[in-house]
């Protein structure tokens, strides 16, 4: 796998809303997609939202900036981190949520998140404490001896924070909600588990 990130892709809804797929390096050797949703005149969009944020590393933010530049240069959209009107978090995995803290340095866009992700954003310390209590029970259930490599992996996973500091969520979302008169929330439980 190369470090080069593929170009953005454009999808247009039947109502004319433009959705751009922005690939970012969420982790070393792992790419994730962030989505830019734009409505209105490309030269002065009425709405621009980022769906998910990529990872916490500098490559992810750099790729996001490059993707936005590609949308500006290749499609003529007047968008950037400073023009976002909304950030949407679909679920609390680090490749979807990890870049939120870094984005906070560049945009005041209000955050909307599926309700099960809100505690991970607003109370990351409490979530870490809960995870760190669970590894003992998980290790016993799995029959892992204390101090084993797998026991250590469970503990390391629990000590990682998706966001390093508490951030406010302006809009908790639930199945059936409509966000900003545009985005319809459809709960599709999958690998997130909620």
From TrEMBL:
<dbReference type="InterPro" id="IPR036866">
    <property type="entry name" value="RibonucZ/Hydroxyglut_hydro"/>
</dbReference>
<protein>
    <recommendedName>
        <fullName>Metallo-beta-lactamase domain-containing protein</fullName>
    </recommendedName>
</protein>
<feature type="domain" description="Metallo-beta-lactamase">
    <location>
        <begin position="31"/>
        <end position="191"/>
    </location>
</feature>
<dbReference type="Pfam" id="PF00753">
    <property type="entry name" value="Lactamase_B"/>
</dbReference>
<dbReference type="InterPro" id="IPR001279">
    <property type="entry name" value="Metallo-B-lactamas"/>
</dbReference>
<dbReference type="InterPro" id="IPR050855">
    <property type="entry name" value="NDM-1-like"/>
</dbReference>
């Amino acid at each position: 796998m190369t470090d080069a990130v593929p170009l953005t892709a454009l999808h247009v809804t039947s109502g004319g809303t433009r959705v751009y797929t922005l690939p970012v390096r969420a982790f070393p050797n792992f790419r994730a997609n962030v989505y830019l949703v734009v409505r209105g005149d490309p030269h002065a969009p009425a709405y621009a939202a980022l769906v998910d944020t990529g990872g916490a590393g500098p490559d992810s933010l750099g790729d996001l900036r490059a993707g936005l530049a590609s949308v500006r240069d290749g499609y003529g959209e007047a968008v950037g981190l400073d023009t976002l009107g909304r950030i949407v978090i679909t679920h609390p995995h680090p490749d979807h949520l990890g870049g939120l803290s870094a984005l906070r340095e560049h945009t005041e866009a209000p955050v909307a998140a599926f309700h099960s992700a809100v505690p991970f954003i607003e109370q990351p310390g409490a979530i870490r404490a809960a995870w760190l209590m669970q590894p003992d029970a998980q290790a016993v259930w799995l029959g892992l001896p204390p101090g084993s490599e797998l026991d250590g992996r469970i503990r390391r996973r629990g000590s990682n924070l998706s966001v390093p500091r508490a951030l406010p969520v302006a809009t908790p979302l639930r199945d059936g909600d409509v966000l900003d008169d545009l985005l319809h929330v459809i709960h599709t439980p999958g690998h997130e588990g909620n």
